[in-house]
Amino acid sequence: MDLSVMFFGADDCDSGAGHAAKYDDILEITRAADSLGFTAVWTPERHFQQVGQVFPSPPVLSAALAAVTNRVAVRAGSVVLPLHHPLRVVEDWSVVDNLSRGRTGISVATGWHSTDFVLAPDRYAGRRQQALADIPLLRRLWAGEAVELPDGTGRPVAVRPQPRPVSPRFPIWLTTSGSPETWTAAGRLRTNVLGATIGQTRQELAEKIRRYRTAYQAAPEQLGTTDRGTVTLMAHTYVGADDAEATRLASGPLRAYLRSYVAQTAANRAGDGRTAALTAEQTDALVEFARQRYLSWGSLLGSPDTCRRSLLDLRDLGCDEVACFVDFGLDRSDILAGLHRLAELRKDLTA
């Protein structure tokens, strides 16, 4: 099983200087991930929210990460595909692929927050169907096929994206927030799948992985795909010197992160309104319930022995890669110390 580093954002900055410091953290942690042998670094696409303020453009940030690393893959987790023209996505990531000498990959997200779609308001209602339909087009464009699209006069013109990427195959994941239908769709499209441990039981996750594997094997061959898909799961991660240290350092940031996620959900106008109606006391209770549940299963928060058992359990479920979500509020020094401890566990996962 592979181990990667996932940036997902827990920012409380309100100034350019604060944001610049966050980018310094990301660069330093990425250099460490590269030298310690982690498989990939993932950066998200986030817009207009407190959570993830420094992540509006994965390809721009990934270009910087590609320039300061030598071997680690540089991936987007995720690209909100309905917000972008597929041709532009391929152009941007072809640049990153050249800078990294073939180390790119993206996970396609359909998008969920209504505010994000001020960038493409006419695509919100059909965002899921549009994202799934555009994945084969991404593969064709990456392979160098010319496609016919209307130009500024409204007449069709054949275009081929430039520059040409280094890698002949575009590794694509499909991001899922937990819907079984999305796991099945990923299998049918023969994409990899990027999910999360949080918000579901071990049994629920095992069933979704089973659905994905079944759909993948039944799907016909498709351009740029492999015989077996990759299941990547995101998990909050801090490997402490012992369980007590991990709980002490991670609990406060984890509560704050979960509370900010509740606030973001409440601001989504397409939601059912229940989250927005919660009182402060109810929000506190929900956050504490989620924290306790997550500490009991699905996170990598604990001693090396605790995290080793969790990783082996995820491997037994059929997980191929864990994307270790590290920037949920810990200091840079703590993140780096945890990554060094985590790197020492890798040999147990490849045995």
Description:
The protein is an alpha/beta fold and 351 residues long. It has one domain (2-349): TIM Barrel. The protein is 46% helix and 16% strand. The protein is built from eleven helices and eleven strands. The chain has helices at 16-36, 58-67, 86-100, 127-142, 180-189, 202-218, 243-266, 280-296, 304-317, 332-344, 346-349, and strands at 2-6, 40-43, 73-80, 104-109, 147-150, 156-159, 172-175, 192-196, 231-239, 300-302, 321-325. Strands 1-2-3-4-7-8-9-11 form an eight-stranded parallel beta barrel, surrounded by eight helices. A two-stranded antiparallel ribbon has the order 5-6. Helix 1 runs parallel beside helix 10 (332-344), helix 2 runs parallel beside helix 3 (86-100) and helix 3 crosses helix 4. The longest helix has 24 residues, at 243-266. The termini are close together. The model has no long low-confidence stretch (mean pLDDT 90). This is LLM class flavin-dependent oxidoreductase. Residues 1-320 form the Luciferase-like domain. It comes from Micromonospora orduensis. One of its GO terms (molecular function) is oxidoreductase activity, acting on paired donors, with incorporation or reduction of molecular oxygen. InterPro entries: Bact_Lucif_Oxidored, Biosynth_lucif-like_mOase_dom, Luciferase-like_dom, Luciferase-like_sf.
